[in-house]
């Protein structure tokens, strides 16, 4: 009898996308698969064949979820942003942990596959002696680079100047006053639930599947428990609807189309929208913008060359030959999809790993970056024009695309899961 596998993820689509593909493939290989995620994300897994298990993770604080992501999107200090996310984890840790106990007890999974941000699930798995694999879209701090390279969390190029090298070297020390008090509070909460059991680092020497490649990340030796498999995409991507497909095809002057999307969490300010619209209009290309309806109210009057959608199947859009440039926030899923399809990037990072990722796409020659605090329409036009006219960006993206297509991706990730189940 095939063993049963349980996925556990926060209701953040960027965190869940790769796990959805893995769950679908494992179901097709005959495994009993369950997916633990809050009710708000139920539709995401409706076509996987996995059994949906609702997970209540309501926070104990008074933060409104939308206000939280709006604030963190526009905060100036990346360190302050990290602190805000740690505090939010502390406030939600208790309900996350407690509501997983009956789920783990009832279904008794043979193996857990856990989103890198779901630390309470890892802690409970350790307490209950359930083996688990961590799934992540990027390498992050799981394996550190040496001091000559930018540390994860910075926005530095690999060509750091003298001051950047100093601050890069000193970063762990400089973070202590800002992050240590919050980290101590988090560990107190974790120890409370660990009881008498020794509190281990939930990531220490645990199997980790990383869904990207050194074609994008800074190369470094990997320990045997960290498996970098390349982008994890569904075998059958969601197709374009007929209306959008026709619009993408309708390019009589053959200039191409600019695609704009900033993920499901980043919140733009009105001035940012205005600068983007004005700058992109001057490119004289058609523009497809995927933006949550909750943010449509801050858009200016859109030119006729723009098409606004609440949601599009991004992989299918980026794979369309008429898309020439992708304007995005540099979440790793978006980077993987863009470069797999050989599309150059205009980066506008907002928080978290996005600043570090944006620096990497500049380093590897596939993109140019905007500063969320101080860009204008002229800068947008200039940088879009550079991406469109300087063939080196497309050539670099095409080279990386070839590498990404040879990584193994989904099949390699699921093979690793099967190997662990057989032990």
CATH architecture of the largest domain: 3-Layer(aba) Sandwich
Report strand %: 5-15%
How big is the Rg? 21 Å
The total domain count is 2
Number of helices, where a helix is a run of at least 4 consecutive DSSP H or I residues: 13
CATH domain class name of the largest domain: Alpha Beta
Distance between the termini: 15 Å
Query: Would you tell me which CATH topology of the largest domain applies?
Result: Rossmann fold
Molecular shape: globular
Which bin fits the share of residues in helices? 40-55%
Strand order of the largest sheet: 3-2-1-4-5-6-7
Q: What structural class should be given to the helix and strand makeup?
A: alpha/beta
Ranges with pLDDT <50 over ≥5 residues?
none
Query: On the 0-100 scale, what is the average pLDDT?
Result: 92
User: Largest sheet, described in full?
Assistant: 7 strands, parallel
What's a quick, concise take on this entry?
By secondary structure, the chain is of the alpha/beta class.
């Amino acid at each position: 009898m095939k063993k049963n596998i349980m996925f556990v993820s926060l209701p953040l689509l960027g965190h869940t996308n790769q796990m959805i593909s893995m769950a679908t493939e494992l179901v097709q290989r005959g495994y009993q698969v369950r997916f633990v995620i809050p009710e708000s994300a139920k539709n995401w897994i409706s076509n996987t064949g996995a059994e949906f298990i609702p997970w209540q993770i309501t926070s104990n604080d008074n933060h409104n979820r939308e206000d939280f992501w709006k604030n963190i999107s526009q905060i100036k200090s990346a360190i302050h942003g990290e602190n805000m996310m740690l505090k939010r984890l502390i406030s939600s840790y208790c309900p996350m942990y407690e509501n997983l106990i009956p789920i783990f007890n009832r279904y008794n999974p043979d193996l857990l596959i856990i989103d890198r941000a779901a630390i309470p699930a890892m802690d409970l798995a350790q307490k209950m002696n359930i083996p688990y694999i961590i799934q992540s879209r990027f390498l992050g701090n799981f394996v550190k680079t040496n001091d000559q390279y930018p540390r994860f969390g910075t926005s530095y190029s690999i060509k750091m100047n003298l001051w950047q090298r100093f601050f890069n070297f000193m970063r762990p020390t400089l973070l202590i006053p800002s992050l240590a008090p919050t980290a101590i509070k988090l560990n107190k909460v974790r120890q409370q639930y660990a009881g008498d059991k020794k509190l281990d680092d939930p990531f220490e020497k645990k199997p980790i599947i990383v869904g990207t490649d050194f074609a994008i990340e800074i190369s470094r030796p990997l320990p045997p428990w960290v498996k970098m498999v390349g982008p994890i995409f569904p075998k059958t991507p969601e197709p374009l609807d007929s209306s959008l497909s026709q619009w993408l095809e309708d390019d009589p002057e053959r200039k191409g189309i600019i695609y704009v999307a900033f993920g499901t969490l980043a919140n733009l300010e009105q001035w940012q929208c205005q600068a983007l619209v004005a700058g992109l209009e001057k490119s004289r290309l058609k523009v497809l913008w995927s933006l949550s309806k909750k943010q449509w109210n801050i858009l200016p009057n859109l030119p006729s060359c723009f098409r606004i959608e609440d949601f599009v199947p991004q992989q299918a859009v980026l794979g369309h030959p008429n898309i020439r440039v992708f304007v995005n926030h540099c979440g790793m899923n978006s980077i993987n999809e863009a470069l797999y399809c050989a599309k150059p990037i205009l980066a506008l990072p907002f928080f978290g790993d996005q600043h570090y990722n944006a620096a990497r796409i500049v380093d590897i020659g596939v993109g140019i970056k905007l500063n969320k605090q101080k860009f204008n329409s002229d800068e947008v036009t200039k940088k879009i024009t550079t991406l469109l006219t300087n063939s080196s960006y497309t050539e670099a993206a095409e080279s990386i695309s070839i590498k990404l297509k040879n990584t193994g991706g989904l099949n390699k990730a699921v093979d690793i899961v099967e190997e662990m189940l057989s032990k």
